[in-house]
Amino acid sequence: xxxxxxxxxxxxxxxxxxxxxxxxxxxxxxxxxxxxxxxxxxxxxxxxxxxxxxxxxxxxxxxxxxxxxxxxxxxxxxxxxxxxxxxxxxxxxxxxxxxxxxxxxxxxxxxxxxxxxxxxxxxxxxxxxxxxxxxxxxxxxxxxxxxxxxxxxxxxxxxxxxxxxxxxxxxxxxxxxxxxxxxxxxxxxxxxxxxxxxxxxxxxxxxxxxxxxxxxxxxxxxxxxxxxxxxxxxxxxxxxxxxxxxxxxxxxxxxxxxxxxxxxxxxxxxxxxxxxxxxxxxxxxxxxxxxxxxxxxxxxxxxxxxxxxxxxxxxxxxxxxxxxxxxxxxxxxxxxxxxxxxxxxxxxx
Amino acid sequence: xxxxxxxxxxxxxxxxxxxxxxxxxxxxxxxxxxxxxxxxxxxxxxxxxxxxxxxxxxxxxxxxxxxxxxxxxxxxxxxxxxxxxxxxxxxxxxxxxxxxxxxxxxxxxxxxxxxxxxxxxxxxxxxxxxxxxxxxxxxxxxxxxxxxxxxxxxxxxxxxxxxxxxxxxxxxxxxxxxxxxxxxxxxxxxxxxxxxxxxxxxxxxxxxxxxxxxxxxxxxxxxxxxxxxxxxxxxxxxxxxxxxxxxxxxxxxxxxxxxxxxxxxxxxxx
Amino acid sequence: xxxxxxxxxxxxxxxxxxxxxxxxxxxxxxxxxxxxxxxxxxxxxxxxxxxxxxxxxxxxxxxxxxxxxxxxxxxxxxxxxxxxxxxxxxxxxxxxxxxxxxxxxxxxxxxxxxxxxxxxxxxxxxxxxxxxxxxxxxxxxxxxxxxxxxxxxxxxxxxxxxxxxxxxxxxxxxxxxxxxxxxxxxxxxxxxxxxxxxxxxxxxxxxxxxxxxxxxxxxxxxxxxxxxxxxxxxxxxxxxxxxxxxxxxxxxxxxxxxxxxxxxxxxxxxxxxxxxxxxxxxxxxxxxxxxxxxxxxxxxxxxxxxxxxxxxxx
Lengths: 349, 270, 314
Description:
A: four-stranded antiparallel β-sheet; C: alpha/beta; 2 domains; three-stranded antiparallel β-sheet
């Protein structure tokens, strides 16, 4: 079902939603820096930055999350309390790459054996309004990883910016609930034509040449390759790529307590930090950057595909844009791929 | 769970065995596990850590864990008194492949305080209900010094039995020690158990495994019949937090027990 | 040209095995950026570049390569870090060979990005100008208007401590009276300062890019990772963020060369240099000391002399 939402009505549309839903959207913290946050009024929403630093994974898997709180009173056992989700939620303005990434994390967090209830509950109660990318960046390579700037998979509603209005598509049952929304007007063939034009133009622009096909098999042969001795050299071992990456999902669990009260918290962690795999005995199976860089790339392009059938990368380009030393994952893939030397020319030596 | 009893196992006072009882009868009845599995024990305010279950599935009324005092959580577990409450999540992990062991001989090799889940395994088979499931049981257990052996009373009982061959050894003996003196790999070589239709299970510090594994190979044990329980830093214990992975497998979920045939195909990330 | 001379020198050093490894800057995939390169062969020397985008402080890599004889490409500020580290006895085996380049002041890529509308696809330096091209635009910017704040206030652009100097020394004068962020801070009341600090650090995501980019942060166990005692939690609570940044800034006091690598590394654009530069200013005012300028001058916060004049220790 297709509709047209005039931009003049956009703020009213959001205000209306805020009465009944918790709304999460990109918010600009300072010029050039955006994150996904819960908003209280429509003026906070900022859709100008194509790739916000912190991705939409924050909405389902917050960087810092209290799992439960406890209180010990006297000689009784502890009373434990958990946060309940009060209202239905809407994620607005996430791009196809971030939305695809959420389904990648979902495969790990909601497996057959155990379910991460914190993630699962949030996912179940969220309606996702995706937003197409009219002007992909040169660092975007979603099309190389099986996605695209207008990939609608995972979105319940999908918006395309037509200039003075949004073209609205209702894609799922959750999306269909919006068909009676008073701000949605009927879309006409002109709107549809314009949307298709924007989509085609954007899809042509995105980099399709990053060699992700067959990378799993190639990396199988490279476990002890001298490639890793060189690949990790410039990496300084910070957490920028892992924290900003929409598919990275490692976390740490700690207890915070003051006297009789406390909470168990989970925080994002990074496999690139030295103490990530440090055992109490002092033994560290990944003692240097070589093993840690190998772990990161192999997890994304070899281990995850073995378990779930696709690479754990959506081509958003954040790791390329924000890495302090410009570790370019595309170059690493070009080097590792079978097409090295042919096709796309790599800069890695 | 409630702490029923606690006992210091070793002369250096770093190992303490906790006997935990269930708070609810339903939990006690429904808790089923196989040897080799582990549980995550919580002390609220300090944290949570994984420990192999040292009691065997036959001992129904309580769970035993042997704790090595090394960090924040383990120090707290050393300090709690009887009657204290401890959180538990489990049983987790894959456990030893008892189906695969059925009808075969069992060779158990343990070093130091890694013997916890091996005790669970051996006690399981020594129970009259299970004894016939495996044929010969040979146990080689070594520690640096006599005082550092775990479950000393139990070892004495096992020595008296004739349906298990138990060889204990120490690196350095003392004036009371009457058993063997020698490193585990050397003692294994000396005993030279037959590899025919035998499964070997080996748990111990990396240095011990490093020198014992070649001895097993020399005795013609194939990699499919050598098993080990791996240790790796864990947090969630259920394959979500990502940290315990070895290649595409998670030690908490797909392990901690692996055969060497499996480990051969994985990166040396342990 | 500096770049050409640099390549020739690097080639020479590697050919006669004066060094095992040269760490410098190379061209990479994005405009307005360079990337650290690790050259081991004379042929590889041609990857080295020198331009206004060489923003990293490569000294941070010396900790990783302490077993090799390293030739390091340094600007004025980087060389000061090396001096500071030498005083802390970080190079017992192989002190690095410094290949110094007097710095023309570097371009702030984040500032350039804000000045144009659309993605920058190409940026080329031409004299005083910076030609910036995108898909639908082409602008010519005055380079001087887009320098890093720490570069504008820098008066130590020539790496005097370098063993080899490539290019001519430059006029050692700051373009501004004081670091712009520091002046701003000094004009604020304590409440305003706290509010500014809180707002800046509220964006922090604990990625530790600032810590890893800094050559002076080399502790085997950083205080944030200590579990006994656990000084700080790993969450994003305001107290954790404030604690982390304040303690890190104070760990740098008397050791920071003002290179700005921390601020440049931050993905959330936190203006970290206001903190470090203010502390540097205080150290200069109180002790007359600037990090890494005099090779033998002892860092005031790590040393004690019975002749020390300060009142608070008498």
